[in-house]
């Protein structure tokens, strides 16, 4: 889904600027439990575990995120 994809992009920023809880909020989830549940359904794992497994292989830049369009 769009919100989960946006959250994964934020997680992979170099020198990640946000906590996982803040990322869920920025992606439009009303609560941490909603974010974690939707993430688990979409990705088959928790946000933290996904981050650990993917952080080194898929880093993106802030320019690639085009964050301004997601506020």
The SS-based structural class is: mainly alpha
* End-to-end Cα distance: 17 Å
**Number of helices, counting only DSSP H or I runs of 4 residues or more:** 5
Report strand %. under 5%
Q: What are the secondary-structure elements, in order, as H or E? A: HHHHH
Write down the Rg.
11 Å
Shape: globular
Which ranges are low-confidence, i.e. pLDDT below 50, for 5 or more consecutive residues? none
Mean pLDDT over the full residue set? 83
Question: Quick one: how many beta strands?
Answer: 0
**Fraction of residues in helix:** 55-70%
Largest sheet: none
What features would you highlight for this structure?
about 70 residues; mainly alpha
List the SSEs and their pairings.
Blueprint: H1 2-11, H2 20-26, H3 32-43, H4 47-54, H5 62-65
Helix pairs in contact: 1-2
Describe the structure.
Helix 1 packs antiparallel against helix 2 (20-26). This protein starts with a helix and ends in a 6-residue tail after the last helix. Helices cover 58% and strands 0% of the residues. The chain is built from five helices and no strands. The longest helix has 12 residues, at 32-43. With 71 residues, the protein is mainly alpha-helical.
């Amino acid at each position: 889904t769009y919100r989960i994809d946006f959250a994964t992009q934020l997680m992979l920023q170099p020198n990640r600027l946000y906590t996982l809880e803040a990322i869920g909020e920025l992606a439009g989830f009303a609560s941490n439990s909603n974010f974690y549940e939707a993430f688990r359904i979409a990705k088959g794992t928790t946000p933290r575990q996904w981050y650990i497994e993917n952080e080194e292989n898929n880093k993106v830049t802030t320019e690639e995120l085009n964050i301004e369009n997601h506020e």
